[in-house]
Amino acid sequence: MNSYIKFWITGILxxxxxxxxxxxxPGEVPESHIQKPSVIPPTITLDITPDTDTLWxxxxxxxxxxxxxxxxxxxxxxxxxxxxxxxxxxWDLQGPIEMTLEIAPYEDGLHTLYMTYITNSNSGSIADKTxxxxxxxVLEWPLVIDRTTExxxxxxxxxxxNNGVLxxxxxxxHPAFNNYTITKYSDSYHQSKTxxxxxxxxxxxxxxxxxxxxxxxxxxxxxNWQFGSQSDYSEMPEPxxxxxxxxxxVKISWKKTRNPAMLGYYLLYANQLYPLPIxxxxxxxxxxxxxELNNISFGRDYIFSIQYIPKAYTYSVPTNWINYAEKSFxxxxxxxxHDISRGIPGGNDILLIKGNQVNNYNIVTxxxxxxxxxxxxxxxxxNVTPDGNHFGYSSxxxxxxRNITTNDIVYTVQYPAFSSYRLVMYTLxxxxxxxxxxxxxxxxxxxxxxGQVEAEFNYGSRVxxxxxxDGNHVMMRDYNNPTNQIYFEVVDSTFxxxxxxxxxxxxxxxxTFSPDNRLFLFYTGRVEIRNALDYSIINQYxxxxxxxxxxxxxxxxxLAYDYYTNTGYVMDINTGMLMKTIKMxxxxxxxxxxxxxxxxxxxxxxxxxxxxQRASGMHKHKILTQPISKMMLK
Amino acid sequence: xxxxxIAGSFFLLSVMHGQEIKLPFSTIGFTQGxxxxxxxxxxxxxxxxxNSLPFEVVTVNNFPVRIFWGGYLAIPLGIKxxxxxxxxxxxxxxxxxxxxxxxxxxxxxxLTSHALSIFGDILLxxxxxxxxxxxxxxxxxxxxxxxxxxxxxxxxxxNDEVEFRAxxxxxxxxxxxxxxxxxxIGLSLRAGYHLSFTAEYHHxxxxxxxxxxxxxxxxxxxxxxxxxxLYNEYKNKK
Lengths: 634, 238
What we know:
By secondary structure, chain A is mainly beta. Helices cover 3% and strands 47% of the residues of chain A.
């Protein structure tokens, strides 16, 4: 071997090998003492919209998410539909963030949207700091893709059942099915409530045991969520039954609720606020279904209402949105309703005037005959002669007198038409005289057979006046100031003043002549009976209260009415002896006839059924000094 | 491994010594010494890397004082001057890194240099057994700058390595104190300063890829040198 080569091989190369082996080698890195993070993931809060248990879509949808992971950092969000990742984001993850889920690649049906959220572990380790260590949260969201235009479940008619109402609907067997969500909006509570979520597609009915009679409910049967087909159901309770249990008392009964568990209380009330209000009655016992009410007034239509008030969810239930059932009731027996009535002396008949129609009604038998239909110049103004043989009225500026039995016209008088002053009233005597009063205060006595003016007087202002049954006397009160009253005798076609007095308690039209020619003057709390011939006083008595509302000379009865207590007092018209006390209301026209009190509402109250005394000492057509002229006028 | 290499080298050298080989120089020498390499720029690199990382790191090595090896061949020019060829191998480096239950991270910078030079020794003074020389060494550092970054997390590993090379001229003046034990063997202590001139580092396979940084090799050097006189001329001249 060449010596040089040998030198290099044996000397130099080992030398180089020696020194090359001395290249710098770094030391080992000491291990830190960072603790491993817990294997139990800490809680995070996810705020995701749409906020539904199932994401039901028929088109692409925007999903908004916001993950609260403090103190850890959200480092990755990824969404996957079934097995395919469709969305991934690792930057700027401070929410809320929106992403659009495109449904074009997927078939209709049930899918799963996996929403993966990854946070760091916050351990401080290398893996943590480099984003390779953390916690992963996966939310599985059922995704229903259903491109069919609409899935409206047909709801069958809702029917009442024992403890509520039964809802039935058409079933939905479909891969997209998740549940039927039954919700109800109730007017009783002004709020919605989810009643049930049914996950079996084969169950297509539900009994709402929270329903109570009268509730106005709006049901929704939703497919997989709370929106869907809707059906209103509003049940009317059965009207209560009202029966009279005493002269002025009634018993009101209603049907027991079929859902006692939901009943808060029965609410019974009357729509009548006046004269004396009946306070609302609350009945909390579901088995208690009747109440008796006393102090029911005659002359008033009552409407009794019953409501079934449900138990409150959280606060008191407003009752005005709950259906109620009502039943009307009025004391007494039924008769024809009327505007005014005129009793016919000497029998049980009474003329009932309603608008232009006049019927002759027998108050005892209840028989009614159409009697007349006429255009009145003065509304309802019919007068019956005191003897009860004729009646008269004005129509088309004529005064017509008819026979009350045959209804034939006896006389027709064209009364003067004063262009400036209209006819405002008239009364009849039993001898065919008529006193007409005009607006200007003019009083004219006509002789009906001849149509001539017998006498005339002008008081100067409007008056209220009546002629006596004998046709020779006139009682007048100032219409506007009824404390001024004048009594006239007609002598030689002249009004001769017999008395001119001031009576503080005089009531405007409250005076009348009896058929036996007595003058009854009615004042507040008092009655005066005078001789119609000379105005001398025969008797006077005080009233228990109020003022005179009706009288019946055939039965010697007079009815006083106390407005404040809504009490009627039936008294002997001659003596003032109290015979009957009745609960009544004088809102409509009240009359007395044949021991009945009548009201324009169409009711009559038989006073025989009211405890008390009948009138004694009948003064039937007693003649004083003149031929009898029966008269009954109000 | 290093021990085996060193042992093998001396074994071969002893074999060679037993042969009758005529070489064109009279003295062969071996050098072992300590070198300090400033490398302030590369230390800054470590700081920048450390700051850029999301986790804390520790500095394991930061261009420490290192042993270097070398050798030389010399020819005497008279009794006061020696000239020759010198070779030295230098290597230093740094490591920053982190290690925990989840994995490890290291960032290493490895610098190596093959310093080739010519030198001259001028005798300044001497006694019976000691001689003092002024030593001047001039040549070039054939340098390599290797960067290794390694991240292990669980079973996943990510490695990045890149190497740049450069030829950096240098001069290294030194003073030498030498003890001659016999006519063949002498031992000297050399102390000097390696003054390196910067040069561009470039990628080994593409010279156009250059670094902005130009790590040099400047720094103090101190070494022990073992001479072996091949032809006993020292004894004759003495």
